[in-house]
Automatic annotation (TrEMBL):
<dbReference type="Pfam" id="PF00126">
    <property type="entry name" value="HTH_1"/>
</dbReference>
<dbReference type="InterPro" id="IPR036388">
    <property type="entry name" value="WH-like_DNA-bd_sf"/>
</dbReference>
<dbReference type="InterPro" id="IPR050950">
    <property type="entry name" value="HTH-type_LysR_regulators"/>
</dbReference>
<dbReference type="GO" id="GO:0003700">
    <property type="term" value="F:DNA-binding transcription factor activity"/>
</dbReference>
<dbReference type="InterPro" id="IPR036390">
    <property type="entry name" value="WH_DNA-bd_sf"/>
</dbReference>
<dbReference type="InterPro" id="IPR005119">
    <property type="entry name" value="LysR_subst-bd"/>
</dbReference>
<dbReference type="GO" id="GO:0003677">
    <property type="term" value="F:DNA binding"/>
</dbReference>
<keyword id="KW-0238">DNA-binding</keyword>
<keyword id="KW-0804">Transcription</keyword>
<protein>
    <recommendedName>
        <fullName>HTH lysR-type domain-containing protein</fullName>
    </recommendedName>
</protein>
<feature type="domain" description="HTH lysR-type">
    <location>
        <begin position="3"/>
        <end position="60"/>
    </location>
</feature>
<keyword id="KW-0805">Transcription regulation</keyword>
<dbReference type="GO" id="GO:0005829">
    <property type="term" value="C:cytosol"/>
</dbReference>
<dbReference type="Pfam" id="PF03466">
    <property type="entry name" value="LysR_substrate"/>
</dbReference>
<comment type="similarity">
    <text>Belongs to the LysR transcriptional regulatory family.</text>
</comment>
<dbReference type="InterPro" id="IPR000847">
    <property type="entry name" value="LysR_HTH_N"/>
</dbReference>
Length: 294
């Protein structure tokens, strides 16, 4: 089944105007030409796309499906036009990157810097998201590349090993646990915690591990950023579980320290995810290869 773009544009026009007459004026075509194009589309589809009324038309269920797919076609064409325009301006394309807070706080900034230094014309659009939202964005085509924790279900994606991080306990330098070599998770749960937002992969992991022990974390304060968590720990308002690298960024300046968490799950693996590596733009493929080689 093949469709030409002109017929699809006319169909879209009729669907939006809900009138053959108004669509003909908008498209600057004769009403008979509009009617003929719609009839040809309906014949090709094998089903009516519109229900005709004296004062206009309404989409049938088949027409509603056709409208959704037609909009996707034109959105893809607009993106293509935009990206090719970037090439003509000397820019080498665009990458939509969605990543977890942990990945953005630790590893990605340096690797994005080296990539954009090597390819200065590339534009990266970066969004911070939780793992499940990243997987959905990749599946829906709203993101080209994602970085998320390996325990996030992603059955329909291609994934590649990326980096590992270690979850440690962040405490103020004056806290009783600050001089410990390691700490077990049950002991951590006896203290009031500063936690990230409820949808974060890190918080989900903490609650899951607590449930296995038949315990519930006592959340004193919940904030949305690692920076705020560290500042609150430094203010001795609680303790927090955070990636070691993040804690050490703040350790010297605000008086916090990291205590290793003596649990096998404290070592987390991050993965790179894409919907279909072969279907990525050359720019997005180059970015994935850059991350994999880092």
């Amino acid at each position: 089944m093949r469709f030409d773009l002109t017929s699809l544009q006319i169909f879209l026009c009729v669907a939006e105007e809900k009138s053959l007459t108004r669509a003909s004026k908008r498209a600057h075509l004769a009403l008979s030409a509009i009617s003929k194009r719609i009839a040809e589309l309906e014949h090709r589809v094998g089903s009516p796309l519109f229900t005709r009324y004296p004062r206009g038309v309404e989409l049938t269920p088949a027409g509603q499906s056709m409208l959704a797919h037609t909009r996707q076609v034109f959105e893809a064409l607009y993106r293509l036009e935009d990206e090719l325009g970037d090439y003509s301006d000397g820019i080498k394309g665009q990458v939509q990157l969605h990543a977890t807070t942990s990945a953005l706080a630790q590893f990605l900034p340096a690797e994005i810097k080296t990539f954009t230094t090597q390819f200065p014309g590339v534009r990266l659009d970066i969004e911070e998201r939780v793992g499940a939202a990243i997987v959905r964005a990749l599946s829906d085509g709203r993101a080209d590349v994602g970085v998320f924790a390996s325990h996030t279900p992603a059955p329909d994606l291609e994934t590649f090993a990326y980096r590992s991080d270690e979850i440690c306990l962040a405490v103020s330098v004056n806290h009783p646990l600050s001089d410990r070599e390691t700490v077990r998770f049950p002991e951590v749960l006896r203290h009031e915690l500063i936690a990230s937002h409820a949808e974060s992969a890190l918080y989900a992991q903490i609650t899951q591990e607590a449930e296995k022990l038949g315990m519930t974390p006592t959340i004193k304060i919940r904030v949305s950023s690692f920076d705020c968590m560290c500042q609150l720990v430094a203010g001795e308002l609680g303790i927090a579980l955070l990636p070691r690298h993040v804690i050490r960024i703040y350790a010297n300046s605000i008086g916090i320290t990291d205590v290793p968490l003596d649990e096998p799950w404290a070592i987390r693996n991050l993965r790179i995810g894409v919907r279909d590596f072969r279907q990525l733009s050359p720019t997005a493929r180059a970015f994935v290869e850059h991350l994999r080689a880092s």
